[in-house]
User: Which sequence fits this backbone?
């Protein structure tokens, strides 16, 4: 590492406007390639509001140049930026909407590989097994798929499917979060968190009020992640060969007390568990012929 480079938390004399200018200039080549990312285009005030109270902004100072030449937000790859070689100090992963040069079959391959452990553990999920064209249709014209790119390689994905709901938990525009995957070898690096933040920022900017997630009830790893993100159980679902839990995150104030949400979920679970059972080799079977 160049000894003329000093990495420190953003000093008071470094303005947020200068941070914005570094981000904008550093991502110029990405824009030329058609890779547009939301955060580098944010104003100085928007960057400040996003960082303050949530994380830290670190800058690399060139002692010879006397100015900020690189900046990095802890716990997120999004604000990583440097002039010149993007790998000079840090490995720079790009979080962006799926580019046109990435095929839907490649998205399928990432999903299938990332969920190999779930299949080994008997945790069945329908979306990772979808073919590329089926994934494209699921996302639709109004949905979004975000990817983490390590060079030309897709190493992580998350999706958002737009829907209009008229249920007790949502009335109007809501989003179904799906297609979450991070390849083995890239886990534990904050990639899923960065992808999820990008998805939630897009949802808020486009006036989504509620995000809905569902997963196999045995997928405890994902369930715990969603609970930490602020999702709450809302209802139970009987799939072809397993039970799913459905969770919701209100992006603004939750309109219901916790006891009411919990009661709705438990009642839903009781009804489905009473009506159905899962039989090995047969899948979902009605208990009493009703």
Assistant:
């Amino acid at each position: 590492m160049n000894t003329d480079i000093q990495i420190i938390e953003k000093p008071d004399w470094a303005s947020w406007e200068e941070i914005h200018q570094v981000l904008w200039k550093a991502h110029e080549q990405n824009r030329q390639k058609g890779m547009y990312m939301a955060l580098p285009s944010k104003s100085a005030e928007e960057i400040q509001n996003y960082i303050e109270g949530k994380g830290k902004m670190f800058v690399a100072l060139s002692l010879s140049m006397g100015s900020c030449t690189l900046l990095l937000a802890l716990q997120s790859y999004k604000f990583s930026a440097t002039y010149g070689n993007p790998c000079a100090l840090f490995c720079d992963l790009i979080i962006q909407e799926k580019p046109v040069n990435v095929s839907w079959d490649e998205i399928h391959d990432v999903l299938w590989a990332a969920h190999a452990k779930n299949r080994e553990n008997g945790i069945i999920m329908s979306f990772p097994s979808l073919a590329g064209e089926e994934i494209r249709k699921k996302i639709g014209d109004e949905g979004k798929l975000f990817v983490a790119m390590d060079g030309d390689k897709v190493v992580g994905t998350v999706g958002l499917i737009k829907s209009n709901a008229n249920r007790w938990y949502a009335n109007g525009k809501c989003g179904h979060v799906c297609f979450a995957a991070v390849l083995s070898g890239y886990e534990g690096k904050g990639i899923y968190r960065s992808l999820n933040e990008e998805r939630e920022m897009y949802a808020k900017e486009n006036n989504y009020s509620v995000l809905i997630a569902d997963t196999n009830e045995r997928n405890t790893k994902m369930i715990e992640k969603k609970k930490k993100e602020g999702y709450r159980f809302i209802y139970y679902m009987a799939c072809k060969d397993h039970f799913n839990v459905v969770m919701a995150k209100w992006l603004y104030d939750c309109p219901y007390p916790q006891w009411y949400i919990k009661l709705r979920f438990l009642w839903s679970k009781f009804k489905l568990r009473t009506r159905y059972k899962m039989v090995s080799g047969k899948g979902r079977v009605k208990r009493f012929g009703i």
Notes: The CA atoms of residues 93 and 203 lie 22 Å apart. Confidence is low (pLDDT under 50) at residues 63-91. The first helix runs from residue 16 to 26. DSSP finds nine helices and 13 strands in the chain.
